[in-house]
Write a structure and sequence with these properties.
This protein is mostly helical. The chain has 12 helices and no strands. The longest helix has 31 residues, at 40-70. It starts with a helix and ends in a 9-residue tail after the last helix.
Length: 311
Amino acid sequence: MESNESAAAVLLPARNLTPAKGECTNELPTVQEYLDGLNYPIACIIVATVLLSIATFSIFFKNAYHILHRTPKQFKTKSILLLTIYPLVTLFGVVSISVPRAYFLCDTVMHVYFMICAYVFFSLCMQYVDGEDALIKSTDSQTFSLRTPPFCCLVPLFKRQPVTKTRLRFVRMLIMQLPVVQTALFLALNVVFVEDYANFNRIILYFVPLIVVSILLGVWGLNVLVRMLSPLYSDLKLMGKYFVLQAVLILCRIQPLIIAAIVGSTIAECAFPMTLQVQKNAVFQMCLCFEMMLLSCWASVLYKFPSVIGQ
């Protein structure tokens, strides 16, 4: 049971997934209660998060301007959709800090949009190589391999093979299931959150295996795709573009555990409405917004390729 609770905490940085400290209540404050009890550290975190969000939006608009004027027409829409994830995460980070009871809805929007971006990234890669048929014709060597993380140890007998329609369709389905399955699961969890919050933390444990398996399969498909195309099209910076996208998932799911442990061991005060979980969420969202700003800067360099001049 302890392992299941840890997995739930990774997937959903919810307020009640970690034990309360002392007399700390698990109740989330309303907006009015939150504002009435707002203290100086949390107010500073909110201001810092807003400033980081504004900076990320500024970087995004600069990137979008560059893409609209310098990137070939067929790549513009998907490139902008992928770059939108960074300001969107910061925006909902600000909402999550400002409205504590909206944290799960904000987390759902960020999570589902990442899954959509995973399939958009696949489509963009296929556009980069002029489609699946052109890719198959241009790669007559053994470039397709299923021996990639996270299942590389489970399929040691699979050798490198030529690229075929069937194999590309398999990769497409691995990635396509992400937005479909994850959206359905998180919509169901939101219904549970609203209708039966008292049992929400118990019910979510049954969803965790499905969520984890779906994510691992999608990441497997993305790894197969990138490792297949990256050596053939090094000028497109596909590995870097994949990393700045995958980093969003890692930071949103792994980082909450680390921050919860640090905040839980260093902060002793837990008076309503500034409960321990409210403080954990505030610190997490501030760190996440800072990281999204850095990733947005990195992405601005990567998405300069290809350019009209380059082609």
